[in-house]
Amino acid sequence: QVHPYAQIALGILTSAAQLLISQANLDKAVCDLLDAVRDVYEFLTEDETIKNIDAMRDTLAKIARTISDSAQFINNYSATKSFWKRTAKNIFSETQTVIDGYVKTLDGLMQQYRDRAVQDIHINTYRILEDLNLDGMAYAGGAGLNTTKKCLDGTRKEILQEIINWINDPDVGAPRILWLHGQAGRGKSAIAHTIASWFKDVGGFGSCFCFARDRQDEHREEKILTTIARDLADRDPSFRRALADAVSRDHSLKTTPDVMRQWQQLILEPLSKVDGEIVGNVVVVIDALDESGSVKSRKHILSLLSSTAAARLPSNFRILLTSRPLRDINHVLGATQHVKATSLDDISPVSAEQDIRLYVSSELAELAEIGDTEIQKIAHKSSGLFEWARLACEFIEPNKPGRTVMERYNEIMSHGSGGGTLLDIMYRTILADTVPKDKTTLARFCSVMQQIMSTSTPLRLDTLNEMRGYFPPEADRFDVVIILEFMAPLLSGIADRCSVVRPLHASFYDFLLDPSRSGDYFVGAPSMHGVLAFASLHTLCNDLKFNICGLESSYSGNSEVVDLQERISKNISENLSYSCQYWGHHLQRTGFDSALATLVEAVIGCEKLIFWLEALSLLSGLGHVTSALASTITWLQSGFEDTLALAQDGIKFLHNFGSVISHSTPHLYISALPFTPSATMLSRKLMPKFSCIVELSVGGLKEWPVAQLTLPGHTGWVRSVGFSPDGKRIVSGSDDRTVRVWDAERGVQIGGPLQGHT
Length: 758
Description:
Elements: H1 4-21, H2 31-44, H3 47-51, H4 57-75, H5 77-86, H6 91-114, H7 157-168, E1 177-181, H8 188-201, E2 205-210, H9 224-235, H10 237-249, H11 259-274, E3 282-287, H12 299-305, H13 308-311, E4 317-323, H14 327-333, E5 339-343, H15 349-363, H16 372-381, H17 386-396, H18 405-414, H19 422-434, H20 439-454, H21 461-468, H22 481-484, E6 491-492, E7 502-503, H23 507-513, H24 515-518, H25 529-543, H26 564-571, H27 574-588, H28 594-604, H29 608-618, H30 625-635, H31 641-663, H32 667-672, H33 681-686, E8 718-723, E9 729-734, E10 738-743, E11 748-749, E12 754-755
Parallel strand pairs: 1-4, 1-5, 2-3, 3-4
Antiparallel strand pairs: 6-7, 8-9, 9-10, 10-11, 10-12
């Protein structure tokens, strides 16, 4: 009966021991490490050690992590030796360096445990990644673990214990998926991040993937399994080899948005090859699936989670999934046998109230006016909603002049409770305290929240202000701080100006979008796209320039410029970066406007078009070009023929030279522009602007080649070809008895050939 965190560590230690025992032919070179590992297990079984497990659980976690790494090294030693041999390294000295590091760390941790001391012992993790190329695999940045969301220690004991028991259940028939659901504010994400953090700390094998409502434009649902596969590969060498083998046979797997293919070829197949070689349980946390977007965005994810393949995952594989019980999610997961459904709404009110009392006591500990009675009343009023309790603590804190702590406490306690409306009441209370209801202030509040909700990705406060400086209505060119300054209880990035501004809880967006709930503070659906398009295009006009990052040479690829990220940070502001990537997104969502069309012409109709491509190449954002220019072509009306022709040329320019430009930005000017067909609008209008670049004296094309892409693969006559309705895919049928699907923009095959017809 020990803390769940310690239970996870003990589980890792047990699995590592079983893996080592099963090694029939251990290499003599690793015997010293095995002896050190044996000493650790003997130490862990001593009575004195067992007695202090709870008190020393952090040290125990570090021991588990080091033992897990050691077991992986021993298990993969043969493959590691082969790699060292191929790379002409001294196998003996490399082995000794790794073993000495592990032995030294284990000795230090055991001594720390004996002394009951807590010291910061650095744990060296030796990752022998071999020559396995996973570069370019789609990865959802910022979707991982956030330790600031963890539960306060000592809270949520019952549900955390239940989840740990499910993870450690040795029954091969145990459900592979646990769906934790409940209404907004129950603390689902805190529990998910606590489990993910515990497993990471003890060296467990897994991944944490979070959806977020304000990141829906990133289409994280298309990267979910490529991201999880990369995380698993970074943790286990045998899985990494299996994954690298899969993508080496089909490079399109690295970027495919097809989650069913990702599931089959990046998760199931590699797992089948490493079954029995992984230390401990594999724990994958998927948080806030309900925030993925529309029902369509998660349809395939739900389909694979409810499939028989999910039921047959290895017996040590677990998926912890959290969401609100939305109708589509409940319909699929609620009826699936291998999914264990647990509702936080069913947690004992007494248990939830006790946890919230601990949390409130911790948050308000320094306020002398708030005693046990007040803490008990706050906990009781929360009705089990952790988010309400957090907001209540934020409201009571004396961070504004005019009222005492007890006056603020009495205000939140005076509002009637109403179950699901508690959060709404708290939101209205905080807004009433922050945003006066006069006409000017409410209009400004609505304007700022519209801006935050309309951007395609969250932005910092200074960037929101910089963008606002270009808003066409002069009344909107105010400092957003006058509205946001006291909204830290509701939004991140206010107190900490270095992080992005976003709601601390997704339910705040729901509140602002529903007039029956928000009343005077109703903001409505995002509708500021025209203004944001105007501001973004103004930014491009003013800030784009030739060789913006001052690259000195074309002899290096972008990846070889050592300080490239530093140059980008210095020369491309967050506002310019956002404007380059998303102006087309906003343009597409607004009606035609002549003033806006003039701005489009000012960017696309001159050399700024090339400077824009340069910036996107540096930002690894050339994927935005085709959609932005295609939006321009459909949006512009007659009278802008030259701009339309340049937009069309821009798409063909990218198709022909995109790979060159993305590899080395200077070759936009050195290689791509000189070879642009001479009769095109792009060449005629823009080449004279660049007088110092190479000119072709002989040869060269006059028009874009009819054949823009070659799709190699078929070995027989091609008898039928078709485009998908959106023009992004091509399908072809051939006498070689295959049907193949192609990416029309990149010219690569999507998946393997479809075989079966005779």
